[in-house]
Amino acid sequence: MKKPVIVCVDDERTVLSSLQTELMDALADEYLIETAEGGEDALALFEELLEDNYEIPLIISDCMMLGMPGDELLKRIHALSPKTFKILLTGQTNTEAVVNALNHANLYRHISKPWETSDLVLTVSEAIKTYFKDQLLDEQNKALKKVNATLSQTLDNLKATQQELIQSEKMATLGQLIAGVAHEINTPLGAIQSSVENIATFLNQTLEHLPTFFKEICLEHQQDFFALLKKSIQHETFLSSKEKRQLRKTMVRQLDEHRVEDATMIADTLVEMGICDNIEAFLPLLKAPKSQTILNTAYQLASLQKSTQTIMAASERAAKVVFALKSFARYDSSGEKVPTNLIEGIETVLTLYHNQLKHGIEIIKNYAQLPPVWGYPAELNQVWTNIIHNALQAMSYKGTLKIDVTEQDNHAIINITDSGIGIPDEIKQKIFEPFFTTKPTGEGCGLGLDIVKRIIDKHNGKITVESVVGKTTLTVYIPINPNEEKRHA
Amino acid sequence: MPKPVILCVDDEVVVLESLKIQLKQEFGDIYFYEMAESADEALEIIEELREDNIDILVIVSDWLMPGMKGDEFLIRVHDKYPGIIKVLLTGQADSEAIKRAQHQANLHRCLYKPWNAKELIETIKSGLA
Ligand SMILES: Nc1ncnc2c1ncn2[C@@H]1O[C@H](COP(=O)(O)OP(=O)(O)O)[C@@H](O)[C@H]1O
Ligand SMILES: [Mg+2]
Fold first, then answer.
1. Mean pLDDT within A95-108
2. CB burial class (10 A; 0-12, 13-18, 19+) of residue B22?
3. Model-level pTM greater than 0.90?
4. Is the ipTM of this structure higher than 0.90?
5. Distance A158 CA to ligand 2 centre (A)
6. How many CB atoms lie within 10 A of CB B82?
7. Which of A9, A84, A334, B108 meets the CB 3.0–4.6 Å disulfide criterion with A61?
8. B6 and chain A in contact, CB less than 8 A
C-alpha cells in the first residue's frame, strides 16, 4: 500500500526545508513528506498525487507567498480534496487570511511563525488522526447506507411476498370451499336430471294408456280416482323415511281390518302419494278388482307433480348457491366503504359451507336486527370465512357452531362460538400473529387470523378471543358509525 | 308372501324419492322398496326385515353421509349378509373407499351422481341375474 502524503508549501526554501526535516523526523516511517515552493507548484503536485490515488491527509501552507497567497491556495485545494486537513503558517498580521481560509477552505488550524517543533508535530499528528477517524466513519456510513438500501429492498420484497401469501391463503380457503360448492350444485342438478327423466318416462309410457284406462273404469271409480289425485296434490307436508314407514305400518293394519288385499303395497303407494288419513273414503276403490291399476296410474300422475316440485326446489337451491358465490366474490372495485349487510355476508359464507356443515355441525343462529355497516363487503366475507373455517377445523367438522349478532353502543358485535378443542392460554396472544399455526402444513399456514385482524383494523373494529376446552368464542366488533353514513349520503 | 326388498340409503331425501320413483316405474309390484336417510337407519330396517323373514336383494347406498360412510356401511352388511347385492351411488369419487368396498363388501357396481335411470336399472338387473 502507498504511504499517505503530507504536502508542505512555502516560497522560502529555508523554512520549507526545516518544515520537511522536522516532519520527516517525526513521521517518515508512515508518511511521505512532499514539498512545493509556491501555490501553482502545490496545485500541480496535488493533482498529480490525486491522479495516482494517494491519500493526502494534510497540507501545510505558508500564508504570505509570492503569486498565490496561502488562503487562496487552501481554498483551491479544498475544492480539489475537501477531506484533506489544512493548516496555515501565519505571521502576526494575517487575521484576514485566516478568516478567509476558515470560511472557504475549512481550515483546521493555524500555526504562528516561528513555531515550536513539538507544537507542530502534535498538531500535525492530531490532524492526521482525525483525518483517518473521519475516513473510517465515512466508510462505515457508506457501508451502513448500503445495508440500509438492501434492507429496504428486502422489506419491499417481504411486503410483496406477504401479499402473495395472503392471496394464496385466500386461494387455499377458497379451494376447499369450491370443492364443497361443486357438490352443493351437483346435488340439485342430479335431482333435476332424474326428475326430468321421470317426467319423460311418464310421457313415453303412461300417457298413451290414459284414454283406454279411463274408458275401462266406471264413473264412480273415475270420481274416486280424481279425489285421490287431488288429495295427493294438496298434500305438502314433508315426511322423513322413518315417518313414512310408521304411517305405512298403521295403514297396513287399517287395510287389513277392512280386508283389503295386498295391503303392504297399497299402503306404500298411498303414503308415497301423501295420503295418510281418512282412507275410509277410498275403500270401495281399493277393494275394486282393478284397484292396482287405478292406484298405480294415480301414483304416476302424483309423481309427475312431485317431480316438478323437486325441480323447483332444486333450481332454487342451485340458484341460492350461485347467488352466494356471486356475492362472496363481489369485488370492492370502488375501494370505498359501502353500506354492508353483515348478516347477509355471514349467511353467504354459511351457504357456501353448507356441504361441510350438514354432516355433523349443528348451527345455532341468533341475529338481531342490524343497520347496514359501512365497510368492504368482500373483505368482511373473508373475515367470516376464516373464523368459521378455524371453528370447523377445531371441531373436526363435528359439533355446534353458534353465531350471535347483536348491536351495542353503536357497534355490531358478532360472536362466533365453536365446541372444539379450544385455545390454550399460552398461545392465545399469538394466534393473530402472521404464520402462527398449530396445524400441519396443508391445513393451515397461520395467516387466517392475521388477515382477519387487518381487515377488522381497516374497519376501525376489534377482535377478541375467549376459550376453554369445548367452547371458543371469537368476538368481532365493527363500528356502525352513523356520521360517516351522513357524510356519504 | 312378503315381497323381496330393494333398499336405498342416502341423506338427501330428493335422491331417495327419485330412486323410488325410478324403481317403481321399472319393477312395479315385483319388489318392495325401502328408503333410509342414514346408514344407522338402514341397519335398523335390515334387522326389522330379517326378523320378519323378508329378503333383501339389493342395497343402493350413497357414500358421503353424516355418521357412517357408505363403504363402512356396506362392509358391515356384507359381514352378516354376504348374499345382498351392493351398489354405491356417489357424488364424490373416493377411490380408497371404493377399493375398500370392492375388497371387503364384494361391491357389485359404483355409480356416479348424477346418474340416469337406465344405468341404475341395468346395474340392478345385472346384479340380480
Ligand atoms: N376456533 C379455534 N379453536 C381453536 N384454535 C383456534 C381457533 N381459531 C384459531 N385457532 C388457533 O389459532 C391458530 C392460528 O389461526 P390462523 O391464523 O387462522 O391460522 P391457521 O388456521 O392457518 O393455523 C391456529 O393454528 C389454531 O391453533
Ligand atoms: Mg385458519
1. 86
2. buried
3. no
4. no
5. 21
6. 10
7. A9
8. no
